[in-house]
């Protein structure tokens, strides 16, 4: 097993028979329907491939939001470019007047993310990029599904990237998409048999950890033990660390970005899963789970939902809560095994301090909780109950301390 069960419920989608239940995929659009597609292992590699394809030159600048993760900066540096950071507003929309002020003769591209699945105003952003002749990279890492003005997210950018492993029950897999450019010279090639096997076995191991494979669990456990023994003898160096093992908090935000993999495709296994599972189930369950989290956690002291309304066209990646007292709450959540995702916990060290107070504040204070399609009712109720208890306990302690002072 590749992870001790410190997290009592799965942070990411988990493969099960239910993943394949319904097949109404034609009616559910996603970033793959936005244009031509090339598959890679990770969203950061898709960003690197986009920048390579547009021929970013040394010292060209790429506009990156001040609220970001390191995985959005590494591909720019790897391509020889310079990141130039811009502000966002409290509702996570991009600060267009700040963007205007940061464009200069070196600006070549901008990265525009749909934070947590909630889309940006793509019309305004598209016009801005056209006016300044900037290449627009629509970052759909949090928004594999969802639409804007009747088109799938990813359609408006010169390029779009998607992070399939955040939405599908797989361990690796991402895509570069373009509705505007010919990607035939951005081809990626198969990563080989080891990568294929690792991708397959990581997916099954994660499902086994959370007992999702029913009657086949015991037999598979035996097989996995044999695999572990073989693997320790062969020790292939060429495959990526399992995504489910990565703890960006522990790694100071570093992602293990490896630019040498930019032309390597995700596994055939991941591609098969992406095509075979029910998209309708992903969309419906995520939206339903988000609403349950909103109902269960929307009124708590000491925190507030970042988005109190879930628009029709949004398919959330996670449920973001803005904490009043993150340093007190985070270790306690970890101790009781509630999974917390912390996008933007580590901002790029080279970004000027004070450039964007909202981003610095959100980097500390926004915690994201899973709302993925594979959480069952008991898991969701357990998570809501634990967060409620904790927030109520923290608020009563601070009230007591306040009145004693
Ligand atoms: C907004 C955003 N863009 C890009 C990435 C990179 O995606 P990946 O983790 O698949 O490399 C991430 C990673 O979390 C992200 O949050």
Describe the fold and architecture:
β2, α2 and β3 form a beta-alpha-beta unit. The longest helix is centred in the last third of the chain and has 28 residues, at 377-404. It is globular, with a radius of gyration of 21 Å. The chain has helices spanning 43-53, 70-78, 96-102, 122-132, 193-209, 217-234, 268-276, 279-297, 326-336, 357-365, 377-404, and strands at residues 36-40, 61-65, 82-86, 107-113, 135-140, 147-148, 151-152, 159-162, 174-178, 303-305, 318-323, 366-370. The protein has a domain at 279-404: Aspartate Aminotransferase, domain 1. A seven-stranded mixed β-sheet has the order 1-9-8-5-4-2-3, with helices on both faces. The protein has 405 residues and is of the alpha/beta class.
Concise synopsis of the structure shown:
The chain is α/β, with parallel strands linked by helices.
The oligomeric state of the chains shown is single chain
Low-confidence stretches: none
> Any idea of the CATH class of the domain at 279-404?
Alpha Beta
The total of beta strands comes to 12
Quote the CATH topology of the domain at 279-404.
Aspartate Aminotransferase, domain 1
What coarse outline follows from CA principal-axis ratios?
A: globular
Q: What level of helicity do the residues show?
A: 25-40%
The mean pLDDT is: 92
Count of DSSP H/I helices: 11
**Are any ligands bound, and if so which?**
pyridoxal-5'-phosphate
Secondary-structure-derived class:
alpha/beta
What is the string of helix and strand elements? EHEHEHEHEEEEEHHHHEEHHEH
Biggest sheet descriptor: 7 strands, mixed
Kindly provide the radius of gyration, computed on alpha-carbon positions and rounded to a whole number of angstroms.
21 Å
* CATH superfamily annotation of the domain at 279-404: Aspartate Aminotransferase, domain 1
């Amino acid at each position: 097993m590749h992870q001790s069960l410190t997290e009592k419920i799965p942070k990411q989608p988990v493969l099960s028979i239910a993943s394949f239940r319904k097949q109404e995929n034609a009616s559910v659009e996603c970033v793959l329907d936005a244009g031509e597609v090339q598959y890679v292992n990770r969203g950061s590699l898709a960003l690197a491939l986009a920048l390579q394809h547009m021929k970013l030159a040394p010292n060209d600048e790429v506009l990156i939001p001040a609220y970001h993760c390191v995985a959005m900066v590494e591909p720019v540096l790897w391509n020889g470019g310079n990141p130039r950071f811009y502000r966002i507003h409290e509702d996570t929309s991009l600060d267009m007047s700040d963007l205007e002020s940061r464009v200069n003769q070196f600006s070549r591209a901008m990265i525009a993310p749909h934070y947590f699945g909630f889309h940006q105003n793509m019309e305004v952003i598209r016009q801005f990029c056209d006016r300044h002749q900037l290449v627009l990279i629509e970052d759909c890492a949090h928004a594999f599904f969802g639409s804007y003005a009747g088109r799938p997210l990813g359609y408006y950018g010169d390029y779009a990237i998607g992070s399939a492993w955040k939405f599908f029950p797989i361990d690796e897999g991402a895509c570069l998409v373009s509705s505007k450019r010919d990607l035939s010279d951005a081809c990626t090639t198969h990563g080989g048999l080891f990568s294929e096997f690792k991708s397959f076995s990581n997916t099954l191991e994660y499902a086994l950890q959370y007992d999702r494979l029913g009657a086949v669990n015991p037999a598979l456990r035996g097989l996995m033990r044999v695999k572990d023994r073989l693997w320790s003898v062969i020790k292939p160096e060429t495959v990526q660390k399992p995504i489910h093992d990565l703890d960006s908090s522990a790694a100071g935000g570093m992602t293990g970005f490896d630019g040498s993999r930019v032309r390597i495709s995700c596994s055939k296994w991941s591609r098969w899963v992406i095509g075979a599972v029910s998209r309708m189930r992903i969309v419906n369950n995520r939206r339903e789970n988000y609403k349950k989290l909103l109902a269960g956690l929307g009124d708590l002291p000491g925190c507030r939902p970042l988005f109190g309304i879930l628009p029709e066209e949004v398919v959330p990646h996670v449920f973001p809560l803005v904490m009043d007292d993150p340093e007190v709450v985070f270790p306690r959540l970890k101790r009781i095994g509630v999974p917390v995702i912390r996008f933007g916990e580590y901002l790029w060290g080279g970004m000027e301090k004070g450039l964007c107070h909202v981003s610095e504040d959100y980097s500390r204070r926004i915690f994201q909780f899973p709302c993925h399609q594979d959480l069952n009712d008991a898991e969701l109720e357990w998570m809501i109950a634990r967060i409620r208890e904790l927030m109520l306990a923290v608020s009563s302690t601070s009230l007591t301390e306040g009145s004693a002072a």
